[in-house]
Amino acid sequence: MLEDLFQSSTSISLLGAIVGLLVLHLFYSSVSSQEKKRDPPGPKPLPLLGNLLQVDLKKLDSSLFDLSKKYGPVFTVYFGLKKVVVLAGYRTVKQALVNHAEEFGDREITPIFYDFNKGHGILLSNGDSWKEMRRFALSTLRDFGMGKRISEGKIIEECHYLIEEFEQYEGKAFDNTRILCYAASNIISAIVFGKRFEYKDAAFQAMVDREHESIHLTGSASILMYNLFPWLGPFLKNRRNVMKNMERNKEDTNSIIADLKETLNPDMCRCFVDAFLTRKLNLEASEIKDSHYHDNNLVYSVMNLFAAGTDTTGNTLQWCLLFMAKYPDIQYQVQEELSRVIGSRQVRVEDRKNLPYTDAVIHESQRLANIVPMAVPHKISRDVTFQGYFIKEGTTVFPLLTSVLHDESEWESPHTFNPSHFLDEEGKFIKRDAFMPFSAGRRMCLGESLAKMELFLFFTSLLQRFCFTPPPGVTEDELDLTPVVGFTLTPSAHELCAVSRQ
Predict the structure, then answer these.
(1) Beta bridge partners of 75
(2) How many CA atoms lie within 13 A of 73 on its CB side?
(3) For 52-148, where are the alpha helices, taking DSSP H only?
(4) What is the pLDDT of residues 3-53, one digit of tens each?
(5) Is 357 helix (H, G, I), strand (E, B) or coil?
(6) What pTM, to 2 d.p., does this model score?
(7) Which of 55, 90, 110, 184 is the most exposed place for a label (fewest CB within 10 A)?
């Protein structure tokens, strides 16, 4: 009897111990799980509005940069009910986009981005279609000389047309915005369409001007509100104007494609469009189904390349020339180096290594101009724990390029124009890891090598021929470096004089 009671008591104690251990295990597992799934910190959101009242939608990158100084390099903000994780600082952005390229590699397709491309093309798409279109675009652009001598020849030819345009003003003040965009656009047009356009071609002017306006409006506060509350779309003028621009450019692009299709010779590939059409025909002949080589991917890929190859390079060139007029001593040093090393002959890409100061000035112009301050938004492709924080699949991510290019721990004087950022003590050019104007990782700009070549050849050709000064009656100090905020940061409206040096 006592033995039975003892065994029963032991069994109860053992059962209690097991239950206790299970409870402790579940408790610590829960705590551990909560620690693992710790959300990035951030300002407390208001119901429905989130943190909209705590940021300036007209200077969003600056507002987010300021918040990072309080909440750290990985933090959360809510735009209405939409949760966004912001990445700030060079080391954090690089770690996410490069070391965790797969998890941070998807594109956030906002309502306005979907309106633009319907999930097709290169820039605003995801999945297998994006992978195939990017792979095809990279290989085709290389075939047509992106970053090679064949591109150099096209850019040098365009330099001559650009110089002729500047000379027509005979040293008088003028707005160079459109001309620089037309020149940049002709380089990507030669690759995509197989031809350049005259600067006075009305259809070409309209395409470039509409693209420029759309990129600006896409970064407006009203479009941001549309992305948060799509039902507002029909009531927003900016959204109507953007869509009207996009539809007209789509019609013009389809018209150019139709002309190329009529004269297509698969044995003589003239351009990107020809290469795409030929691949499409070959796949159709092989009866391959579910191909990504269809008309929507063609037209939207072409529009992506045209927009990216026009506005960003033209915009950067505007900043370069504005900085030269603002800082005449730096302009003088560039021209002294060009005269000493090159003389009056045409600058070639291979000369870059012998022009360290000039190269440093171009890089510093890109760094300080910071023309794509928040990159194009990313999206988490699968759950990830990053720097101790849990970020759920599908979360929108802003890689804050402003915080990289103006990172106080990476740049000696991040908010001033200082070419020494890219020069060693002996005056030799040095690369800086935190120089990331083309973003990084899977989504970095696929036209980076072409853009670098264009910037170098256009800038040096113009500085060889002209001295850039403020208009009469305006001092260097009065030149305004405050950007006009849109999806990209462009210089405020201004005029410069291009005074001949010869």
Answers:
(1) 86
(2) 18
(3) 60-71, 90-94, 111-117, 127-143
(4) 443 344 444 444 444 444 443 344 334 333 444 479 999 999 999 899 999
(5) helix
(6) 0.90
(7) 55
